[in-house]
Target: Enoyl-CoA hydratase
Amino acid sequence: MSDHVRTAQTGAVRTILIDRPEKKNALTRAIYDSLAAAIRSADADPTVKVICLTGTGGAFSSGNDIGDFEAQPPVSDMKTGPHGLLCALRDAEKPLVAAVNGMAVGIGATLLLHCDLVYAGASARFRLPFVGLGLAPEGGSTVLLPRLLGPQRASEVLFFGDWIDARKALAWGLVNEVFEDADLIAEVRSRADRLARQPARLLRLAKRLMKQAPTSLDDRIVEEIDLIARNLSLPEAKEAFRAMREKRPPDFGPFDGQEQAASPPCSDGSGFAAQRRPE
Model:
């Protein structure tokens, strides 16, 4: 693993840190590969329920290290470089939570589109400068940004490449919430801990359903009703209803390692699970 990627785990929350503050956490091929490996490792580790991603120092990531980028241009290879990192983010079945401290530029911003929850410090700034650099947008941003922001705002972001401050990012829906810089990590950790107390299998199921494209809305409604009926007899639902009757918080810990048949894999080619690639 690159010296510029560190991991730490407290409880069921694995934190992955980009640690190159002297270069504003600019990403090299080695850092891409280490980040991808760290995400895949956390996703496969049964002791991990939530994966957090952040940067050290005053930046989340300033994007590609230009010198390294020119020396090693990106290739369409899902096991290495930018593509490898984006595939690891896309394939992750566990919740991905980003804490954006400072600038997020280029792929440092587009990778956030693959996270499930994004929180920002008040000084956070976002920029997607691809067109002005003579480059095409990347990270699936030409698909994901129009879905998230609408076509007009997505065009503004990608055509002009201007800075987006934290308040505008919140208003536009790029981030879930903005905190004072000094409070960001503690607030994100609090939310990650809350997620870790949820039933792990159901978190993965809800995420997969949101990622999987249904053939129609009616088909998805039918699928959800079927899943509700099947999950009613499983341990997580029994514990939740028992806890309500006993007026106490539910304890899903004993069930975290259990896989149940009520979480079937996606079957169509556009499905989230179907996109996973062998290592």
